[in-house]
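Two proteins were folded this term; both appear here.
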Amino acid sequence: MAIERCRIWWPRQELQLEQGPDSARLILFGWFFTSSGCLDIVVSATVPQDQILRSFATLDALQTIVLSSNKRMPVSLQESSTFTILGDCDRHFLGELEEYCCTKQLPLDAQFVRKEHFGTSRNSIIIGSVGNGDQHPSYDHRRWRCDCCVLDGFLDACRKSAVKEGSWVQLFCKSGMSFKSNLNRTVLCHLYLDGQQIEINHCHVILYEVPTFGRNHFSLGVDAPRKLKASFKKPNWINDLQKQPSFLDLDSILLALNCSNAARLPVIQECSTSSSGAYFVFASVYDVLVQVTWHCMGIFLASASTILYIMILVFRKCLSHMSQYLMLHKVFKHSWSNIHLRSCQILYWPFVLQDTSLSSTMNVEYAHKAAIRKHALWSSIAVDLLMGFVLGAAFLLNTETICIWTVALVHHMTDAILRSGCVWLMGVPAGFKLNTELAELLGMISLNAIQIYSTLWFFVGGYLRHIIQGIAFSGIILGLTAPVSFFIDIIQLATLHVTMLHWLISSIYSRQIQTVASLWRLFRGRKWNPLRQRLDSYDYTVEQHVVGSLLFTPVLLLIPTTSVFYVFFSILTTTVIWVCVMLEIAIAVIQSTPYAELTLWVMRRQRFPAGIFFLHVPSSGRAFEDDDLSTHPIRGCSETKTKDAVHGQSETLVSELNCNYATLVQVIRSNYERVFNRTGFSFCKQLAYGILSGERVPSSLQLQPSPSFPWMNIGITEYWMHCHGSVLSCAPKR
């Protein structure tokens, strides 16, 4: 196998290890990735040799720990590579790497680059080129003074077994050399793959921060990238670099980086148990107290949730046996759907919290997404209850004022708009000469319907105070979305007479339009074929033409009178529909806004990566980024030998892995897209077509809440066990 390039992914935390006088060598743990003539060595942990010899008695004990760590990894990572012992390196190599990188200056420059490139699109990967120095492929390893036989005990047997059957890499520095002179002449890789020694012409060290839960992880992102603005014209070698085909797939490498902390913990914890016996005695007592506390909390929360579960089931069963259940469900459908959703959210909390999948503990990226899903439910309920409490308190404190305003608004709508509008249409509206008899007929029907409905609402007005208090208490108990949903149902119920009058007049209007169109086709000798959906020629008789002529004139002359009433009631109905739609949109926004993600985005933006880029680390110790490099939409990168266009020196072979972070729009956009999903466009299209043609118009957006839960039907004992288990799953694990 020919390996032209080697990339060593080194954790930044391992650069600050304490220099121990006993152990001069470090054992490396991680993964090997080989593809397209390139080798990627992902280092997860570095453990001193003497510490391993004190902690493990035999090679089998060490291999058992490593094998158990590999079995816990995600299946896709196990198929790509195996977590194993990579090799060894000396302390001088680590010291030279730390001195080369000048770690005390990197965070400031890295923070500057994050601020400079914050807001770039996802999946944007800025790739730096790697030079090969002056090293010749046929150099002789024997000319370098190598300490290959420094490993003691079973570690030497492990290396011999790995060289014979697997892979082994050794990193060390030539005496008298420094990273600042040339990395390719400083780092000497004794690399064995499948029992054969491999020579490396290009070596590239990439520093990365080990992802940990609650802090950061790496991700390529899913959005199309945008190009960064270049501060000066790009050199020709950058354009040539972008034209080269990509051969590096970063998916497996980033998966290994996200799992590196979980893979290294068993080895490090096993190595640290030998010298901390007293601490573990204290820790065991502390763990017992913590577990007892969490068990008591689990019993209390599970019992309270089970009682609430029984109450909801009993209320739903009693309500379903009522004869008026279907009528109430249809009249108050928005309120019923909101209460159903809130009940499901309350009942499903143990299933949302109880995530026992292995991927959530191994992969930091999956753990962050699972945590966000857990926090999304309770944060949405908490914000909704907080806003509902504010609205309910305002209603309770201003009940009298709200009653006065409501009565005044109802009287204004009934007298100044409905009655005055109908009387105006019965005369000569805007100078139009209408059919007097038809206008009076439609006007009297409308006025009688308005009067009858006003009389009914006069008796309901005596209970207006209690209705407002009920809305206030529903907001305090169920949240803001409950009274808003009730507002929608009340508006639709209060304007039912307007809706019925619009339906009646639209039926007359649509029938007149269809009659005129049919008679016009009769005069043209055409007939509509419903089977083939087309117009066919047809020979009508003389009698049919005479009857059609007699009907065409009165129907055509009556259309203006019907159209005036239809336009008036269409405006009123459309206004009512848009008010209800705005309230529906407000409910959907309140329910689908990711409050937990927004809070985490403000506090810790590292949990929302949207692409990666590399910072070059020159020998001067200041990290910088090539502003002339444009973002790549590919899943990998191409490397070539280049010269630094600004400083005139060989380009560095040490770089730092960093992330672009998602913007606020990218964080919340996917949640809104799942709820609306082009619903607004289709609704406006149906509404416009229904108004112009006189057909039925939609009354709501029919938005699907996110997330939506089915109704739960499980046993009481089983539900209590789920609640208790979900609380215990949230307990801290040592």
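Next, the second protein.
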Amino acid sequence: MITFTDVENNEYQAQCEIEKTDAVNGEKSLSGTIYFGQDVKANIAKGWTLSFLDENYVVVTYTKNDKENTVAFSAVQAFFYKMSKTGLYETWNGSHPFSSYLDALFAGTGYTYDNTATVAAFEKQDWGMSDRLSLFNDIIDQTNVEFSVEGTVVHVVPAMGSDLSTIVRKKFNLDTAEIQTDNTTFATYGRGYGAYSKPNDTSSKRLEVEYKSPLYDYYYPKFGAIEAVPIADERYTIADNLLAAVKEKVDKSWSISLTLNLVDLQSVGYKYAMANPGDYITVIDENLNFSDKVRIIKVTSDYDIRGTRTKTEVECGSLSFAEQQKTSQSTLSNVAAGKIPVPNEWLTSQVQLATNNLLAARTELRFTDQGIIAIDKSDANKVVIFNSAGLGVSTDGGQTFKSAVTADGVVADRLFGNLISGITYETEDPASHYRIRLKGGAMEFFKANQLIGGINQMVTGTDINNLEGNTLRLAQTDGSGTSVGVITIPTTSTQSKPLVQINAKIDSDLIFNGGGSRFITAENKLWLSSPEKVNIAATDTSTGDVNTHLAVTSSETDVWGNFNVYNGSKNAVQVTRDGIRATPAYELAENYVGDIGESKTGDGKTVRVDIDPLVFDLINTDKPYQVFLTAYDDAHFWVSERGKDYFVVSSDSPDSSFGWELKGKRRGFEDQRLVETKDTYKDLEKMEGLIPNGNQNVQSNS
């Protein structure tokens, strides 16, 4: 019985014949015919799902046949449906890590991924703005990796399946075979064109490689060079990488495909596993004069209404020509003829013996000369062996043990656990040789074999260190994987001259605590220094403009805007015979600019004093200005006239000397008087030490 579910999650039962397809690209699909289950046949509609062999599928098409009272349907695994109906509304350009592409595709879909393939960062142009399944297939094709889906987890791997010990042979477990050779794309020669020497100049010299296959000389006398379509891709900047791509294209241009009808031996009591998509098996058919190692590309299985598998059809693709040359045809022929036993690396006699014993005993383990051997009854490629050398787990019939515990250590493809404890852990990127080592409570960073930094313990805490000549960067990364440095220790930093670069805005109070005071370091000093100039700026909240308010160089300090001094004075500091003394600035209630000078009245007892043009530019003489006089002779002086850019001084005696002082209102600030600062007493109380006993500047005039 098959369970169908409608859009309201109501469940219905039906009996169906089903054809299930599994392929190396992760594809899992169903097509079937519903014979019994009236509720399903009458009501099946958009949004229905079904569960088959513990996997969920979405019905995508259905056809009702009134004459036969059946419903034919097709369904795809839920992952493919979900991803094809979900869009990625972004556009990416440039180079990004493989994980960044995967993170973006799986975000919010309900699916997660497990990636065990090593893929270098690669470049995409205008990637995005499409459904997630198309984008996922695009990066899977570009990176030459494969994937499978288990529940809500997508496993991304270098290649699916295993190189199995399984031998499929005519009259043993092979019913019929059909072999097809495709020579339409066969090539013996290829070229590749990569990046231009000048990226923006297509007339400049271009990276170029060529490749000749092992068959080049054999076919050349008759056909000349049989050329593959050239690869032209500016993203290739390294000759070896481009050559590898051309070589792969040429070597895989000749392909063989087989369609095999396998006798399902499990149905007649032979407990030996069927191979899975991605597995490599050896096929021997003397009638076709064929014996070779091939890869299973797709498996199609038929199930009757009782859920019993009745037929299995396997579509295989051969290895590339280069890989085929590595296969020993003589060994295969000798095995097929029965001249030599099956080699141990294919299927050991001890493993076969253990298999027979376990199947005969059902619930009893038998001991062999290799130790205790356990084989999965539903998949004989899964083997566990236990002996004095250790414990091993194999997924390829005992050829290799990728998970093992021996006296030399533990080997495993994957480790899972809430806590993994140990002395040393090490991981390395094979492309860049960047290596991280966890050892004895510390973390060390290496480039190749050179130590470049680490995280270590201190007596009082934790130390993050960077060795001279290397960069240590704290970065901010966006959703596309592009990162920018926020805090960087550059390569020029040394222990004697430590340097740090901060390329960010400080989004909080900057407080240095030392001795319990604000803005004071432990050494009672706070230093901001730069080789040329230190700027202090603030952002205008209304316009967003960043304006410099204070600039300090080695010789001067410039201030833009108002300069306020709270509870203190503006002083000029000079050296005297009695030490360094501060001379406070003269303060007025209004904003004045002044000038001082001397003059002398003439025979007519008057003199005109012209205001310095530069001083005139600073003051507004349209407003009343003041002139103060000091007598230097026995005479009386007064200002007899105040002009726009001059004033006239008179005396009661001729030829009399005097001093004068001019004060005029600063142009642009004529109306300022005791300017309101907007600060309150509470604001001042927050400034430590300014008014410890209240506002001492306020006094009574009563």
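Residues 319-364, 514-522 have pLDDT under 50 and may be disordered. The CA atoms of residues 294 and 518 lie 75 Å apart. These notes refer to the second protein only.
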